[in-house]
Every structure is written in C-alpha cells, then in structure tokens.
Amino acid sequence: MRTIKIVILVILILKNVISSAQNNKSNSADIIIPDLLISAKRVNTKLESNMSSYSISSSIIKSAGNTIDALRTVPGIIIHSKSNILLYGSECVININGKKLNISKEALADYLNSIPASSISRVEIISSPNAKHDAQGAGGIINIITKKESAYGLTSITNSSYQQHTTSRSNINSSLFYNRAKTSIFSNYSYNSGKYLSTLKTMREPKMIDYKNGNIFHMKQRSNMSDKIIGNWIQLGIERAPNHHYRYGLNLQVNNTDKNSIANMRSDIFDLNKFNNDTPPINTIITPSNTEIRQLRGSFNSYFNYISKRGATHNFYSDYISLDHKERVEISNSPIKHNGEISIFETQYNLQLPIDLKHSIELGAKYTDSHISYITKIDKLIKEDYKERVGALFFLYSAKLKNVNIEAGLRVEDSNREGTELFPSLNLSQKINNGKNSIYFTYGRRVNRPTYRDLSPFNYIWDKYTISLGNPNLKSEIINNLEFGLIFNNNIRISAFTTLSKDPILQIIEISDLNVATIYPKNYSNMIKSGMRLQANNINVASFWQCSLFASLYNSRYSWRSMEDKSKISVVTPMININNSFEIIHGIKGEVSGFYVGNMAFGQGVIKPHGSVSAAIAKSFMNNSLNIQLTVNDILQSNRQNLKLNLMSNSIKASTNQFNDHRSIGISITYRFKRGSEAAKNRASMDKEYLKRVNL
Predict the structure, then answer these.
(1) Over the range 110-133, which residues count as b (16 or more CB within 10 Å of their CB) and which as e?
(2) Which of 128, 248, 516, 539 qualifies as a cystine partner to 304, CB 3.0-4.6 A?
(3) Per-residue pLDDT averaged across 237-242, rounded?
(4) Model pTM above 0.70
C-alpha cells in the first residue's frame, strides 16, 4: 500500500512539473556561479543521456559537513554500513577529478570523511560510461569535482564548520588561488576531527544446535562502537597555458588519517525451548576490541594538453599513488598487526581527431600497474603480495547529424589476472519537437574486478561466533547495462533500464555446524535489475521556490548457491529524493530536502526501508564575502539501516540492526578574501573540453 501511495504522489508531482517545465526558460549554458550564493532560479543540476551533474557548492545542505555527508544527499547514492557506497543499489567506482581512488572501501570512507564538502564544486553521476572511461564499476561512476577558482588575481577562501551530534565534529578548510593570464596556482588545506557512534544488533534464530546435548539455542548480539577520526588533507597545484594550443600542470595531494575504533560485542545465548523476553541467558560472552589505524596517502599527477591548428586534441597524463597503511587490532587482549603498502602507477594518452564539422574520432591507450604488499603478524608473519597490470586501448566515434547524435566505442582491456576482454559502448540520441526534447538509448558493458581485500584469505575474528575472510577463487563480475529514455526541456528525464550481471560479487554468510558465522565475498550465479527512473530538476514552482525531484522503482533478482543449496531473492525497491530551495526575505536562503528508500536487495539480505529529512538556512553579508549557514540533518532520526538475512544451513533466520548517529545541528562560516579582477575570463577556447578531461 505504501508503494502505491508513493507512485500516485510521483504521478501528481510529475503532472505539475511537466506543466511548469513548458514555461521554464532556464539557461543551462556554462556560467560562473559565486561560491555559496544560492538562488532559487539558478540551475543547480544538469542532465544528459548518460550523466547527471549536481552542484554541491551552491547547495546549503550539500556543502555542509564532509564529502561523505554530501554524497548522502545526492539522488541515487546510498551509503550502507558507513563505508559501502552504492549507486542505484549497485557497486560503483569513486573518482576525484576523473581519477579512480584505488583503495579499500573502509580506507575510501575515511579519506572522503577528511575532505570538507565546502571544497567540492559538483558531483557527476555517470550511469553508462563510454569506452574512454575505465570499464571497472558495475553501477557506473561517481566523479567528485573539487573547486577551481577562475577569477583573476589572488583569491582566498576560509571555511569553518561545526556539527553537534551525540558527539561533536569540526572541520577547518582554507583555499588559496592565484590566477594570471597564463599561470594558475592553487592550494587547499583541511583539518577535520570527529567522533562517530553506532550500535549494531544481530540475532540468529531459531536454531543453533548443540549436537552433544541436543539443545537448540537462540543468540542475540549487541555491539556499541565508537570511531574517532582525525584527518589532514593538502592539495597543491600549478598550471600553465602559454597560448591557445598548450596547457600543462602538476598536482600534489597528501592525506593523513588517524582512526581509533573501540567496540564491545556482547553475545547472549538462550535456550530456545525456554526463551522469552524475560528469560535470562544461559551464557554470555563479552568480546572487547580496539583498532588503531594510521594511513598516509600521497598522489602526484602531471598532465599535458595540446590542440593543433587543425583542431586535433592531444591529452597526456600520468599519476603515481602511494598508500601506507598501519593497523593494530586487539580482540580480547590478543593483538594482530597489519602493515600494508600500496603503490599505483598510471599513464594515459588520448587523441581526439575531428574529421569534419559533424564527425570525429577519439582513441587512446592507458596502462595501470598496481602493487599491494600486506604483512600480517599474529603468532607468525604472513606476507601477501598482489600485482595487477591492466593495459587498455579504446576507440570512440562521434557524429552530430541534423537531429541525431551517435557515439559508438570499443574498449579493450588486458589484465594479468583475467586476460583480454572487450567492452563496447553505444549512445544514440535524437532531437524531437524542434529540438526542445530528445529520445536516447545507451548500452555499455562493464566489469567489477575483486579487490585485494576480497582476495585475501586471512581470517578476521570478530568474536567466538563470527569471522570474516576473503576468497582467492573470486572471478570478475561482468555487467551489461541498457537504458532507454526521454529528456524534456533539458531538465526532465524519464527512463527505463535493465542491468544483467554474470557472477556478481557480494558478501555471503554461512553458518557452520559449530555455529560459527563466516562472512566472505562470493560470486553469485546472476543478478537482474530492471526498472524506471524519473528526474525533474530546477523546476520553478514559484518565484521564491525551486524544486528538484528524483524517483525510481526497480526490481532486483539474485540467485546463489550456499552449502550445496540453491536460493534466490527478488525485491521491488522504491527510491525518492526531493530537494526544495527557497528565496526568503532580505537575502536569506533556505533548503528542505529528504529521501526515502524502500526494501532493497543486498545479496542474501534485504535492507529495510529508511529515509531522512534535513533543513538549512543561509545568509550572506559584506557583499557576499561572508556567508553563515545553519543546518539540521536527519531531523526525524530515521536514517536507520536494518538488514534481514536469508540464510541457509543450520540458521533459518538472522537479522542485523545498525544505528549510525546522523542527526546533528551544525554551523558553517565561510569568508572569501578577494583581490584583483572579479570577472572570470575563459583563457582559451580549449578550456571547456580540457576541463571535461582533467577536471582540476
């Protein structure tokens, strides 16, 4: 019944939105928007056939907190269990300025927690990447674009934010930009400190069998966890554009994170034959744990761009990334040490060659060399080495005819672990109704390769009854994505999509005869996901009110084999995200946003419905140099992610209930120092295409 009500509500809203859109004359051309200055008439979201772009800097709610907080507010993104970032319910790739972050999920979440949202310009959602993008990522790509000041002269921006939860979090960020006609220098520094609380409850029933005595048991577990994180992020860069043909630059980033996690797991065992809510447990086990993690990540990037007199564009870049990971885990006073070193070298060359005014081709080559060395010390030293080399070639043909756009490509990737694979892509679009609307079709083949953490066979012991480990026998997941849609007036999109996955990689939980739950990644048999999406952006409901709406309804079907038994799951998931921006009196801006996600399939489990409502208000002073924001997140404290598991073997039922402390009230103060010219000029005709490629 709830799903039916939601569908009816979406239809009514869509009816009003389309009516409003017919009169909406918003200009979607690229313009310079002053940071943190919000207007209900400003275009904050941009739609294309395979991409959605969301402005972070012009949203009060999105620009508060850190980057993880900002991603939670972007339609289609779900962050499950603190570190699992999903796009439309599937695994995805996270890029910063077009570069993939090749680190584990936990390290990625800690890294994004250290970057303030105030330093982010926008977030791009690429649902169907073409052949020039890496083939990795089942659900697509989330590309985070950091700010780049374009005003001439010296510009300095300082931001300080504070959030009060049950605990407190704070962030200080300072940016310095210096622009001249041929040279740009930029720097960014941020410091963040915060404490994150969560509670995890698990239940297994109806039977944990004691084969010796024949008793049947029921077990409840509760873990109270506290994560304290301190992070520093530094970015330095220089760029030169001596003329309209050349551009080159260097970029350095350093991130240091210290994390301390304390947890106490209480396991209560009950005799199921005598169990009720008042029955005391027949046995209780307390498992304390303390985890200390230190991470130092550095990356160095160089790039060169050249446009010939005939319009051919040459792009070359190289990256070197180094990550030093030190981890000490103490469970029940038994210490375990993990020391890891990750080094990644990546280089790429692209050539875009126009054939004539309507046709062009693009081709390129990329090479990535990854080396992961991991040493674990328990009773003895265990050393693991992972080497992965991926070479890629791609070809992309584009044609812009009278009313039809064609983009067809092929990417070839060769991996030392998986061999050679082909990844075709196709994007067709046709303008209708004199170019006001368009119809499109996209297809792409993707891959999801297991990470070194997925492949590591090392056992991580949570307590007497729970362990997790990797799976050295994992195969890569192959994904085929198809989407068909309509775009109205460049701000309303309706689409139908299907995703077919072979050997999808998901976590599986198995219960042994000794009642130990083992959690490990496994290739499921297949996954089929199909549904519809609606997106309506920048709709002027009134002169003071602008609204954006995202809604999706899709079905996910998984099948897998566990303990020689076959099982499957099928779930229909509704998703809604609504953002409202208001122009209040005397230059005061306001926002109210919220999201709702229904039952969502996640491997063996179903994530139960959850949602959130947030509000914010902002005011600028001193000719927009000073901006003050007040934000209230998760007002109803409803962003609770419960997971119901469908397990085979000895345990018939199991569930987890995890509560993360998202509700907070925060204040953010930004001061913008200005010198030189306020007018931002385009220094070269190649800037627009260049920024699409490099995004610095």
Answers:
(1) bbbbbbbbbbbbbbbbbbbbbbbb
(2) 248
(3) 91
(4) yes
